[in-house]
Amino acid sequence: MSQTFRVGLTRDILKPDGTIGFGDIGLSLLDDAAGVEWEFLAENTPTLRRDQVQDYDALLVLAPSITAETLDGVDRLTILARFGVGYDAVDVDACTQNGVLLTITPDGVRRPVAAAIITFILALSQKLLIKDRLTRDGRWDDKLNYMGMGVTGRTLGLVGMGNIGREVFKLAQPFAMHHLAYDPYATPEQAQAAGVELVDLETLLRTSDFVSICCALTPETHHLINAERLALMKETAYLINAARGPIVDQAALTVALRERRIQGAALDVFEQEPVDPNDPILTIDNVIVTPHGICWTDECFLGNGRSACESILDVAAGRVPKNVVNRDALDNPRFQEKLRRYM
């Protein structure tokens, strides 16, 4: 490596007091690497600009968007390491065309997100927030009006059976639930190994007591759960979304919740983020809402950070990292030329 390998981190990893959220995110890996320097970007912007990224070999990015304009004329950048697994805010084609690898951190989020989904299932089934309010309001005897739902023997249906979905099923095994999944990309062998029954989406929605969204946001999954499909769900069923907000038609969900067409929901993600404080979904008492951070724990941040840093250091050493999203970029002469700089 003939020059210093420069890494830029987006500032949204920092808390308002300037400290890193949840402390250790594995940056010691970068500190200990010879010839590698890192720093936070000077500004916190919703979309990164060309002038912010052009002097770095690598970027570690939490939430900001990366567009074709971000990368236009940027010759040095070689890897964009997402702090997480979603990449709907990244123009993947632009990365590929510019010879920039996009990596994600599936090992870092698998257990934390799955545990968060199980938390939502239990909180909904036990009517946790309602009973918390009853206690605080001195309505002790009203608990008779808010009977919970036992999960044993109930049906858990996941829309998506990828990295996180399979971990949810693994964690749910002690509850003796029936496991269904809709995933057009899953094989019967994968389902059998996970003890899951693959079904079509309509069957899953009609029969599940808990429906959890565990798929990526793509043009095909945008508003996958719309008014028509919400109408298929049982009135006693719950919807959980800790994936991406636009997978669910939020306006249709608001109506379904308000009219008690389904029993309730838990949402960590919204169509607009940050969610508008005047959004009507925040006024409904049968929905749990969290700020796209239900899985944010020390475990999650350390796992994501270490995975992203390992990908960055692979490139700094002239190696191809694992967890590359746009593998077509590996054949791009621009990427190959960049990688040779670090060998």
Task: Report on the architecture of this protein.
This protein is α/β, with parallel strands linked by helices. The chain folds into two domains: 5-107 and 298-341, 3-Layer(aba) Sandwich (Rossmann fold); 109-289, NAD(P)-binding Rossmann-like Domain (Rossmann fold, 3-Layer(aba) Sandwich), CATH 3.40.50. The protein contains 13 helices and twelve strands. The chain has helices at residues 28-31, 50-53, 68-71, 92-97, 106-125, 128-136, 163-172, 188-194, 201-207, 227-230, 250-258, 298-316, 333-341; strands at 5-9, 36-40, 58-61, 79-82, 101-103, 155-159, 178-182, 197-198, 210-213, 238-241, 264-267, 287-289. The strands form two sheets. Strands 8-7-6-9-10-11-12 form a seven-stranded parallel beta sheet, with helices on both faces.
Short description:
The protein is α/β, with parallel strands linked by helices and 343 residues long.
What key phrases describe this protein's structure?
343 residues; alpha/beta; Rossmann fold; 7-stranded parallel β-sheet; 5-stranded parallel β-sheet; 33% helix
